[in-house]
Amino acid sequence: MLPPSPLGQHKVHGMDLDWKRFVTDMTIDFYLSEVEPLKKITPNVPLTTNFMAEGHDQNEFIPLEGLDYKRFAKHLDIISWDSYPNWNNNYESVADTAVKAGYIHDFYWSLKQQNFLIMESTPSVVNWHSFNKAKKPRVHILSSMQQIAHGSDSTLYFQWRQSRGNSEKFHGSVVAYDNSTENRVFKEVSEYGDRLQKLSEIKNTSKKNKVAIVYEYESNWALNRGGGYGRPSRKYQQRLQKHYEVFWKNDIGVDIISLKDSLEDYDLVIAPMLYMTTEQMNQKIIDYVEKGGVLVSSYFTGFVDEYDLLHQGGRPYQLQDLFGLKHLELDTLLPNELNSVEYEGKMYQVANYADIIKSSTAETLATYQGNFYNGTPALTKNTFGSGKAYYFAGRPDEEWLNKFYEKIITQYSLDAENISKPVPEVSIQKRSNEENTYYFIMNFSEKNQEIQLLENLINGETNEKLSEQLILEAYEVVIARG
Fold it and tell me: What's the predicted TM-score (pTM) here?
């Protein structure tokens, strides 16, 4: 297997895709050789290796893209990852950071549909950013409780005792070089540990969500490698996070899955920008909708096959039948260029991409209001079998995406189990077992927030009844039992 190289061949996209598959296979092979003696010596001890996230240098935070963790996950007994969100930064709100962190937690939970471990985190600062900001008071407990809320059964630290020298001597630690138990960081870690002791019954509880977002590693590799259109603006995972954000702010749990997973337990499957599809993948989403599922997809879906070759005759005819439309062309909007769409009597904005389509059986829900494709569909809905397939032809702005999903959430009762009216800065996540449901009510803002509880709930730490009118102080976390 020859690597892509200026000294050799780097323009054959199929070979480049195979190289990335090969790198994943070789990494898995190395891992298996490392764990082989451990399985013989300690056969009852679970085995893992720490997965990663990236994007800090671009003010982003996404799961590592270079290795196919979905394929890797099959060989791990339990998923673990190193969690280092950039809390209290100057380019986004704490809630925005929490959305990205929540997405990655849910991604790693979804790899095996089981609880994971936080292998590394810091109680205060890291040392590898250009500017290393300390977490503000209470943010450590808030961010650590978020880990548990989204499915972790641990909070582990790098590092326990601060190194005296070399590259990580300024990385945060539980015990600083002053060896003091009186500093703020040590006290917050101690408080967090005390709270976890009171919440020990939550360990091994699980999650069951009705909404899934599809992320495919190989599709992302092919999309990023492909020429044409707008290279800097593709941002597949970042767009998935925008869809995820709507549900996070509405306190609706989401799994981040692959089409290798079962779809039958989900009421809503969101699969935008599914650039590379195989016949099996196409058939899977067709079967899902035909049996009554609701699918949301978008531009860039169904361009190439597993060899990164364009489908002969255009987009796969099965998908065109599913969405009830024909693809004509894709317009790339330049930076700062926008187009308008009309949706339910109001104007919204489209940026970056505008798929130009013609409806065959689909109902037009929104239309472009500018450019040479003025008046053509920008959002469609097609009834297929017992289900519905929605298609965003244009890349929606945040306001339009919120408005669209607001209607979807209501129509399909996706918020039926919510315990309060959503407050965007307050995230409510739940874990449950056969006896109880546990709600993590987390204020990701610097201001007090008030929520109105719709159910009678008990404080999981004090066993006292919670007031229906719950006031959360800045960065406060309340764990309720219902």
Answer: 0.97
